[in-house]
Amino acid sequence: MASYTPRAFRMIRSIKQIRHYSAPLDNAIPASNRKYVPTSGTYPKGFLVSGTHVGIKPTNTRFPDLALIVSETPCSGAAVFTKNIFQAAPVTVSREMLQRRNGQGVQAIVINSGCANAVTGKGGLEDAENMGKTVDACFVDPKAPASNLPTVSSTIVMSTGVIGQRLPIEKILSKIPTGYNNLAASHNDWLTTARAICTTDTFPKLLSHSFSLPSSPGTSYRLAGMTKGAGMIHPNMATLLGILCTDAPIPPSTLSPLLTNAVNRSFNAISIDGDTSTNDTVAMLANGAAGGFEITDIASEDGKAMQEILTKFAQDLAHLVVRDGEGATKFVHIQVVNANSFSSARAIASSIATSPLVKTALYGKDANWGRILCAVGYTPNVSPGTILPEKTSVSFVPVDGSPELKLLVNGEPEAVDEERAAKILESEDLEIRIDLGGGEGGEGRETASYWTCDFSHEYVTINGDYRT
Question: Cα dist. 99→92, 95, 110, 253, 323 in Å?
Answer without folding.
Answer: 11, 6, 18, 12, 34
